[in-house]
Amino acid sequence: MKNNEAAIIHIVDDDEAFRDSLLWLLESHDYRVVGHDSAEAFLEGFVSDGTGCLVLDIRMPGMSGLELFEELCARGSDWPVIFITGHGDVPMAVQAVKRGAHDFLEKPFNQQSLLDAVESALAASRSRRASEAARVAIEDRLASLTSREREVLDKVIEGKMNKVIADELGISIKTVEAHRGKMMDKMGARSIADLVQSVVACRRQGGS
């Protein structure tokens, strides 16, 4: 069952008839859809908050779809992009996918191909949002640690035992155990493996 309630799809295509046909198709499947007749019109009000994706014509007057994609990448947008392309533009679309675009569809394509591509893009967007929410939650928990608890955490993540941590920090094993217990509680970690996985994943995503 699709979860479309909070998601939004932007269609950017200068061909009004084609754009309207895509709007009708997606709206008939209970998606929230907004159409734009140019890349410039889309950029005027775009904010990449929440869950969504772009269905983007690769060739348009003015700013092309490829240039729009590059602009969004430069702005740090992580919204999935599905390119719509004619036969002659397939090599460009392939290069765009290699640079991070989600997918491309070559005209003419059937309705189910578009629906499948959109649902795949929205699933990717939801996954990214969930990962970001988890990272922020870990960041908040890390910020709640005292400096000593943070030192203990860092050494636990390095795989050091309590006795070694106590020797390196110049404190007793009981004090290490106390700090470690409080640190685990604040981090909401059920085990050391859980703690290590969450903190390492947070750091890989650019966290503390």
UniProtKB/TrEMBL annotation:
Taxonomically, which superkingdom? Bacteria
Query: The Response regulatory domain covers which part of the protein?
Result: 8-122
Positions carrying 4-aspartylphosphate: 57
Q: Which GO terms describe its biological process?
A: phosphorelay signal transduction system; regulation of DNA-templated transcription
Kindly list the GO molecular function terms attached to this UniProt entry: DNA binding
One Pfam family here: GerE
Question: In this protein, which residues make up the domain named HTH luxR-type?
Answer: 138-203
Protein name as catalogued: Two component transcriptional regulator, LuxR family
Report the source organism. Gulbenkiania indica
* Lineage start: Bacteria, Pseudomonadati, Pseudomonadota, Betaproteobacteria, Neisseriales
